[in-house]
Amino acid sequence: MKVVAFNRTLQGTGASRRLRKAGQTPGIIYGGAAAPVLIALDGNALYHALKKEAFHGSVLDLEIEGQTQQVLLRDFQMHAYKQLVLHADFQRVDASQPIHTKVALHFINAETSPAVKLGGAIVSHVLNELEVACLPGQLPEFIEVDLGALEVGGSIHTDDLKLPAGVTALTHGQNLTIVTTSVPRGAAAAETEEAK
After folding, report:
1. 87 and 105 both lie in a single domain
2. pLDDT by residue for the chain (196 residues), tens digit each?
3. Which of 62, 92, 122 is a domain's end point?
4. What does the alpha-carbon distance between residue 133 and residue 102 come to, in Å, rounded to a whole number?
5. What is the pLDDT of residue 192?
6. Which of 64, 90, 120, 190 maximizes the CB count within 10 A of its CB?
7. CA atoms within 13 A on the CB side of 49
8. DSSP of the chain, one letter per residue?
9. Which pLDDT value is given to residue 92?
10. Cα 139 to the chain's mean position, in Å?
């Protein structure tokens, strides 16, 4: 995805407030060998871009005055009740250096799994994103979690995932639970009554 930004020289609360009134959002680019750069982005475009999952989980092409550099969105602050982005932080990416970032998990085939279809179980999502390490060019937009074979009482862990080539899950030696299934109490009691 492409993002257009502008250099800004003024910093501080007053300067940031004036930028926001003019429809722009203050931001910063940091990381790598170069010094941090203060930037301003179109506030409306940034607000709508933040609604897209790809904006959070992919390497972005940030253009400042005709020069493009690759960055990751690292943080942003939203206004408490207005549709307004207060600030955005971007980190420079070196194509030859591995990056650590979180990637969204997409769950598929839940409704066709034996746990839901035959057992009437509820699927509980323990994790919705996974921390990974990979080269910037190998960063997936999302990771698919197939729930098609999930049985009642079963679960899926990070070791069960099929990760794209070059992508490693950062679980710090733990086999984290991603999804669990359980039958609701009322449904289990009803089945017991029917069996009598």
Report:
1. no
2. 889 999 988 888 888 899 999 999 999 999 888 899 999 999 999 999 999 988 988 899 999 988 999 999 999 999 999 989 999 999 999 988 999 999 999 999 988 888 888 888 889 999 999 999 999 989 998 999 999 988 888 899 999 999 999 999 998 889 999 999 988 876 554 554 554 5
3. 92
4. 9
5. 47
6. 90
7. 21
8. -EEEEEE----SHHHHHHHHHTTEEEEEEE-SSSPPEEEEEEHHHHHHHTTSHHHHSS-EEEEETTEEEEEEEEEEEE-SSSS-EEEEEEEE--TTS-EEEEEEEEEE-STTSHHHHTT--EEEES-SEEEEEE-GGG--SEEEEE-TTPPTT-EEEGGG--PPTT-EE--TT---EEEEEE--HHHHHHHHHHH-
9. 94
10. 12
Same structural domain, 84 and 6: yes
In terms of domains, do 115 and 191 share one? yes
By residue count, the chain amounts to 196
What is the count of structural domains for the chain?
2
Residue 48 and residue 135 share a domain? no
- Domain range spanning residue 80? 2-92
Together in a domain, 110 and 84: no
The answer to whether residues 103 and 185 belong to one domain is yes
